[in-house]
Every structure is written in C-alpha cells, then in structure tokens.
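Our consortium's second objective concerns turning raw sequence data into structural hypotheses that experimental partners can test. To show how far this objective has progressed, the report includes one record in full. It was chosen at random from the queue rather than selected for favorable results. The single chain below, 249 residues long, was entered without modification.
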Amino acid sequence: MGASGTPPPTPPTPLVLKTNGTLNPVQSILNLIAGQNVVLTADGSGDVTVDSPQTVLIGSDGAFFFGPGITDAGLVYGGETWNAVALNLANNAITANQVVVYLFELFDSFTISKASMLATNNAGGVYATCGIYDHLGNKVVDAGSFLASTGAGVQTNNVNGGTPVTLKPGLYWHAQAAPNTSAGATFLPGITLTSSASGIMGVFLNNSPRVAIAANPLVGGVLPATLGTLIPFTPSISHGDGVAAPLYE
C-alpha cells in the first residue's frame, strides 16, 4: 500500500493471441493477411472472433442484383422507371459487335449462376448479350446470348457456360452488345437516360471514364476476354442511350 493509503494499480492483463482457441506459439505474431477484409467481433467473454465477409449465395435464398448492381427494393418495385434498351445502340449509332460498358459498384459479395432478360421485339435471327468485367477490363461473367423474340418469354442462361462465379465487393463494368445493326435488339429490364440524368452527365463523367465503348469487339456473338482500350462517350437522352439490366441470381 502506498504512503497515501491508496493501493497500487492492478497491472494490465497481457494480450493473449490464439488461433481457433489454440495459443499461438509466437505471441508477437497474429497472422492477418494484408488486403483481406475481416470482421472483428467481441463475444463478451474476452475473446475476439475474426470472421470473413459474408457471401450472399444467389440461387439458394433469392438474393439478386439487376445489371449494374441494383438491389434496392425501392428501385426494383417502382422507384426506377424500367424500359426496353437496345443493346447495340450507343452515342447515336446502332453498331454491330460494339461492346458498350457502364461502370458500377457492388457492396456485397455475390455468387451468381444465372442471368435473365425479356425481349421486347421480334427480329428474326437477332441476338444480344451482356456480361460483367472487373475494373481492369477482364471478363468475369458472360451472360450468354438472348434471342430477340417475345414468344420466348423470359429467357434464362447459365453464366459462364454453367460455371457459377463469385464477385467480391468492388468496381465492375457492365457490358452489352449485339452482333448486328438491327433496331430489334431491345430487351427488358433496362434503364434509359432521362432528362434529369442528362443534366448531370457532365459532372458524372468529368474526372473519370464511367461510360465507354470498348476497343475489343464482340466476336461470333461472344464477348471478348478483355475490353482493351476504353473510349469514353457521353450518353444522351436524344440518342436513346441506356443500360441493360439483366437479372443476375
């Protein structure tokens, strides 16, 4: 006891590092990997649990996103005006095999296996396709070909030829194209540019390309493995520009 009668402070309990409940042999090392997202959760008993980020398993519990990362229920159930979009139209021109891309962001991790769209025109032998590229321009999702036929009803393709893929949170490019110059390559769901959106395009695109035409074209109806150089353009309401939004699940 000190001279003033106050007991000395209790020494702090040293931090003990364990992995899965087992004492780490080297107490100065906790093997957290740089660049990996982790969640630290205190369980109330002095332990901290390290969890990996949650993965939303699409197809097993109804999770989804539309085209450029749309999951907000308010938008899906009427907040967004859904329209038919021509997948081969951009910058006031219908161009065969031209790949048009729109930047978007995913905030969760999704494992997807299917993509669905609905044709709004009947055009014999006309197909269109969509896909997703990572921010560096590498193809990660190929949604396959959709036939421009209303009689086909809702068309669903297995992505990547039947191989599901997990997309981690991050920036991606939505891609759309058609191997012809037919005006019939139109599909739902889609989002066409509105007058209010036209007003902010200058701000949206001022410092970074977020809408562009890829240098690498569609070949044989299949999206290229990489986008190549991106050629930015400003979408316009007068041109009828819009982004397709296939349902990924």
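The partners drew two points from this record. Helices lie at 73-79, 195-204. The longest helix spans residues 195-204. Both points have been shared with the crystallography group to help prioritize constructs.
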